[in-house]
Design goal:
By secondary structure, the chain is of the alpha/beta class. The chain folds into two domains: 149 residues, 3-Layer(bba) Sandwich (FAD/NAD(P)-binding domain), CATH 3.50.50; 152 residues, FAD/NAD(P)-binding domain (3-Layer(bba) Sandwich). Helices cover 31% and strands 26% of the residues. It contains ten helices and 25 strands. It has a five-stranded parallel sheet. Helix 6 links the parallel strand 12 and strand 13. The longest helix is centred in the C-terminal third of the chain and has 20 residues. The model has no long low-confidence stretch (mean pLDDT 95). Bound molecules: flavin-adenine dinucleotide. Flavin-adenine dinucleotide binds next to helix 1, helix 2, helix 6 and helix 9.
Amino acid sequence: MKRLVLLGGGHAHVHVLQAIAEPPDSALSITLISPVATQVYSGMLPGWIAGHYDLDECGIDLGPLARRARARVVPSSGVLVDPTRREVVCANGEAVPYDVLSIDIGSQAFLGDAVGVEKYATPVRPLERFVLAWEALVGRAQRGEIGSLSVVGGGAAGLEVAFAMEHRLRTLLGADAPHVRVLADTPVVLPDYGDGARSRLLRLAAKRNIGIHPSSRVAEVGAGFVRLRDNIEFASDATFWVAGAAANPLFRESGLRTDERGFLLVNDFLQSVSHPEIFGAGDCATSLDHPRPKAGVFAVRAGPALVTNLRALLAGQPLVAHVTPKRFLALIACGDKRAIGLYGAFTFGGRWVWHWKDRIDRRFLARYRVDEARPA
Ligand SMILES: Cc1cc2nc3c(=O)[nH]c(=O)nc-3n(C[C@H](O)[C@H](O)[C@H](O)COP(=O)(O)OP(=O)(O)OC[C@H]3O[C@@H](n4cnc5c(N)ncnc54)[C@H](O)[C@@H]3O)c2cc1C
């Protein structure tokens, strides 16, 4: 019996769970290690913040997928991989042995060196904690306890979150809605995108009175304030931290080869460059020869290649290279059922873009909803 362990229930692994057991292989035992029973889909999180979705519309239930794959579930986080003993050590103390290990644990929020972030700010990840914090904030805003809030991070995710928050609060509270501002440490927001997309977003932000503050590196977060490095201080009754991705320290601590930021380094077969029996996909991994931004679209695309190569390694067959094109479609929701799209140098926007994104997102989730009443 070969033992395949899936660490994390991210975008690539939901596909693995769905596809690996078809046809079922009685010589393969599968274990999924996941601290969460439902994987919150980040692509729809801004829509949930804005009030367009219920939370249960934005999640993938891992239990039914695992049952269909005949996978055992360990409800815990992996904290260390012991490549010599070929075991994953979990936070609950369990050591899970593997012959082949696949890791899709995503990234953590990059917190940087500002003082008080852990105590006073809410990082966007883990998403489950962020969800609770946003629900609490809406309650406080309705009780009139919030004058303004800050979103730290001027990338696509930070802007989506800020636009969504502004929309929700304005829908609920009208003219009494708190002010929303974005603080970015880069000279412009959306530094990875072209001028076209940026100008569209800046126009929308100005119309909706969302404060956009580039070149504003946060030095300290405290109770009721955010202070920048140049000592400018903003009143901020709540601060959300959406300032990019950091690696889980377990890769370095486990002695696996990583990139300079600590993400698992993989080859074009999605295999660890130091440990070929370990695979990595999604945000947690960096391709040695074809690095890509940390975006869900790459994690999703890795799913089918990951299944092919896990099967191939288990069967002792040759692996297949997986290289994603550099260009990808980015759809940035603007809170009010409008979105901006980017593909290479093309930029477009409007309500139809939001509805298109909504269809893509719903279709993605529908693929992984298991109807347990229906025979496999
Ligand atoms: C607000 C927001 C909006 C975004 N919108 C988009 C978008 O529209 N398009 C896009 O391409 N990207 C988007 N992104 C980026 C996207 O979220 C990530 O790139 C994507 O989630 C990466 O997928 P993943 O499978 O690598 O990891 P994840 O989706 O993060 O899944 C990782 C899973 O592993 C689990 N896990 C974590 N640690 C452990 C551990 N130690 N042991 C076991 N399990 C663990 C987690 O609980 C989680 O279930 C957005 C990000 C944010 C924050």
